[in-house]
Design a protein that fits this description.
single chain, 205 residues, alpha/beta, six-stranded parallel β-sheet, 33% helix
């Protein structure tokens, strides 16, 4: 019988524990109305926002630096138009005083922004990621974070995505897109935990 598959992180003997709060910055990616009321509704987005709210509360209680990433497109564009009603951050995750908002134009939150310099200025060496969409901006940011020498943890229940057209025919359900995207990231790019409770437990350990 074939043995169970292992991730590249497991094969390398890399640490598999989630990022400790005292070493981390929280990056909430594109928690915007476009995904709740606009042109890109996501499967499970309401529950993901609730989990992200728990995560944000934990981060604030622990003094974790928080960065809110927002996707903005030029005025008049069909999605995330800077002059439109859906570019705003969802009310549940409104930035607090002292929390930084970083505007981006590409999936990778580091591309064309000063996010890397801002995080490094805090002295934190690890990232905790939440937000949208799992397969797109969360994935792109986690992959880039490895290149920038961050260790990254993703909170699975604080992310969500949508059904995608299968280029080989048919439709891939959002649940499959979500799980596959997280599996890809967990192979090499990030530690994936189910929910905020896993990070709270790591803090207490």
């Amino acid at each position: 019988m074939a043995s169970a598959p292992k991730s590249l992180l497991q094969i390398a003997g890399a640490p598999l524990h989630p990022s400790a709060l005292e070493k981390s910055a929280l990056v909430i990616i594109d928690a915007q109305l476009e995904y709740t009321k606009g042109g890109l509704p996501l499967t499970g987005v309401d529950n993901a926002i609730l989990e992200a709210r728990k995560l944000l509360t934990l981060a604030r209680q622990a003094g974790v630096p928080v960065f809110h990433i927002v996707q903005h497109a030029p005025a008049g564009r069909p999605l995330f138009a800077e002059d439109g009603p859906y570019a705003a951050i969802v009310p549940e995750l409104t930035p607090a005083a002292g929390e930084v908002t970083v505007r981006k134009a590409l999936p990778n939150a580091f591309a064309g922004t000063d996010l890397d310099a801002l995080v490094k200025s805090t002295g934190r060496t690890e990232l905790i990621l939440a937000g949208f969409m799992t397969h797109m901006c969360v994935s792109a940011t986690a992959r880039a974070a490895l290149d920038l020498k961050y260790r990254t943890t993703i909170v699975a229940n604080a992310t969500a995505t949508r059904d995608l057209p299968d280029p080989l025919g048919g439709t891939i359900p959002a649940s499959v897109v979500h799980r596959v995207a997280l599996s890809e990231l967990a192979d090499r790019f990030a530690i994936v935990v189910r929910d905020t409770a896993a990070l709270a437990a790591a803090k207490a350990a």
